[in-house]
Amino acid sequence: MEQFAREIVAPRAAAIDKSGEFPTDVMHAAAGHGLLGVTIPKTWDGAGRDYVSYALAIEAIARASATVAVSLSVTNSLVAELIAHVGRDTQRERWLKPLARGEAIGAFALSEPDAGTDAANQKTTAVRDGDGYRIRGRKVWVANAEEAAVAIVFASTRPGQRGQGVTAFLVPMNTPGITRTARADSLGVRGLGCMDLDLDIAVSDDQVLGRVDQGFRLAMWALQGGRVAIAAQALGIGQAALDEAIAYAKSRQQFGQPIGNYEAIQWMIADMATELAAARMLTLKAAAAKDYQDKSGFEASMAKLAASEAAHKAADKAMQVLASAGYRRGSVVERLFRDVRATEIYQGTSEAQRMIIAANILSTA
Ligand SMILES: Cc1cc2nc3c(=O)[nH]c(=O)nc-3n(C[C@H](O)[C@H](O)[C@H](O)COP(=O)(O)OP(=O)(O)OC[C@H]3O[C@@H](n4cnc5c(N)ncnc54)[C@H](O)[C@@H]3O)c2cc1C
Question: What is the pTM of this model?
Answer without folding.
Answer: 0.98
